[in-house]
Each structure stands twice: as structure tokens, then as C-alpha cells.
Amino acid sequence: MKIRVALLSALLAVSGCGTLGKGGPGAAVTPAPAATPPAGSKVATTIISAMAGGLVGGSIGSGLSDADKRKALEAEYKALEYTASGQKVTWKSDSSGRSGEVVAAQPYRVGSQDCRQYTHTVFSGAAGATARGTACRNADGSWTPLT
């Protein structure tokens, strides 16, 4: 009896974090994308700054110029907001020779927010460093990385 209660409790706890969509449990959630803000616009700047440095704010972004970090954050936003699961969004520095690619996984729902896990790999020559993270979409179209 104790095992059944423990199992039922565990199932109920996990069910709150499931993927929900129009098709019910197990159906994919597709976030409704916000309109693409023009690069360099006040809206784009606000959305990018809301990402709180994204994954390039960590160790994989050390050594990147501010311009490179902005390109990297824009790529993270595009991957999270507009790109199908598993597709790469790439960026390339205008001056340093560094580049990167961001790949977002299938969206899933947590409460009322759409969230996605994603990876960001920054290349310096042939060597690459990869970071993994999760971000959730806010009502204003910005994405907040989870810490």
C-alpha cells in the first residue's frame, strides 16, 4: 500500500511539468512567436537584454567582444523564438574569426510559460565550447534563462 501511495504521489508531481498542447498530454507545444523586431531597434535591444546574458554570459562567452556577444544573444533569441526543434541558428564575428551555433529543443509548457532547452557552441578556430541551458518565454516575447 505504501508503494502505491508513493508511486501515485510521484506521478502527480511529475504530471505538472508535462508537455501539453491542443492534443493533450504528450502533444507538442508550439510557442506563438512575437513579431520579429528589427535588429538594433529599441524592442530588439530590450528583448536581447532580457536574456540576462544568455548562455554566452557564462564561460563560453569569455573573450567575446560586446558586438560578438550581441550576435550570439540574437542567435539564441532566434533559435528559441522562431526555429524548429533541432535546427541550427549560426552567427559569425565580423572581426575576431569566432562563430557559434545555437540549437533549441522541442518547446514544452511549465504552468503558463513555454520553455525550451537549448545548446550554444562557440567556436574559436577548430575548437568549440558548448553550454546547455533552459529558457522560458515571457508574455512580452522575451526569453528568460533559468538558473
Features:
two-stranded antiparallel ribbon, disordered N terminus, single chain, transmembrane helix, Surface_antigen_Rickettsia, 3 helices, 27% helix, 2 domains, Surface antigen domain-containing protein, 147 residues, alpha+beta, 6-stranded antiparallel β-sheet, 30% strand, transmembrane
Radius of gyration: 18 Å
User: In one word, what is the shape?
Assistant: globular
Judged by helices, strands and strand pairing, the structural class is alpha+beta
The beta-strand count equals 8
Main sheet properties: 6 strands, antiparallel
The fraction of residues assigned to DSSP E strands is 25-35%
User: So how many helices?
Assistant: 3
Compute the separation of the termini in Å. Answer: 38 Å
What is the helix/strand order? HEEHHEEEEEE
- Helix residue percentage: 25-40%
Low-confidence runs (pLDDT<50, min 5 residues)? Answer: 1-37
Number of domains: 2
Q: What is the residue-mean pLDDT, rounded to a whole number? A: 75
Give an account of the 3D structure.
There is one protein chain. The chain is an alpha+beta fold. The protein folds into two domains: 1-30, no CATH class; 31-145, no CATH class. The protein is built from three helices and eight strands. The strands form two sheets. Strands 3, 4, 5, 6, 7 and 8 form a six-stranded antiparallel sheet that branches. β1 (20-21) and β2 form a beta hairpin. The protein is globular, with a radius of gyration of 18 Å.
